[in-house]
Amino acid sequence: MDKQILNIINAIPIWAGNIEIKKLEGGITNDNFLVKDNKKKYVVRLGSDIPEHLVSRSNELIASKAAAKCEISPDVVHHDEGILVLDFIESKTLTNIDIKKNIINIIPIIKKIHKEIPKNIYGQSLIFWVFHVIHNYAKFLNDNNSTHVKILDTLLKKSQQIEEIASPFEIVFVTMIYYLQIFSMMVRVYGSSIGNMLDIILHYLI
Fold it and tell me: pLDDT by residue (tens digit) across 19-57?
């Protein structure tokens, strides 16, 4: 394991005695570790802001605290710049078969994420607006002389058309990565029958 990462984790001032560190798989914009001290287990997430992708760790912290208050995610134990420490929850990753068997139980949790987390978010208004993200990416590509600059005007016009056609919108708590993961899961589990399954999901979400 990278020595710098080990030093960062060891320096977190909450450990009771010596610690064991294990790398966890996954993490698109961060590195995750299972840390065990003399009392309990924790998950340590290391990651910096990524302005070009509108990734802000302060937003992640606010959302994590709100989700914990709704009893959707583990408690936030410690945080510092680029560091988030959460309680570890003993659990298992659901297989495709598990998801099929429990889909009716899973959907209310998704609905709770959408509806209840916003009630526990305070301070500066935080909103993920996909059309703003597209607009922001276009500026980033222009500023960095991307080879795709010549097609940006066409893509931005299409984005504007989609935004106008799709309006109005209901604002719920969600992240782009979260939706991509959900959709990917549904495709993986339900394959060609995903259309029927999405009808079921919409029925329980609305």
Answer: 999 999 877 889 999 999 998 999 999 999 988 887 889
Token pair in block for residue 31: 């590195």
Q: Which helix (H) or strand (E) holds 188?
A: helix 176-190
pTM > 0.85: yes or no? no
Q: How far apart, in whole angstroms, are the C-alpha atoms of residue 67 and residue 52?
A: 26
Indicate the residue type of 129. Answer: W
Fold of 3-87: Phosphorylase Kinase; domain 1 (3.30.200)
Q: Is 17 helix (H, G, I), strand (E, B) or coil?
A: coil
Token pair 């993961």 in the structure block, residue: 181
Please tell me the distance from the alpha carbon of residue 137 to that of residue 197, in angstroms, as a whole number.
32
pLDDT per position as a tens digit, 75-96:
999 999 999 999 999 888 888 8
Strand order in the sheet with 41-46: 20-24, 31-36, 41-46, 83-87, 76-80
Residue 184 confidence class, pLDDT cut points 50, 70, 90: low
Q: Under DSSP, is residue 41 helix (H, G, I), strand (E, B) or coil?
A: strand
- Alpha carbon distance, N-terminus to C-terminus of the chain: 46
Residue whose token pair is 């999405």: 198
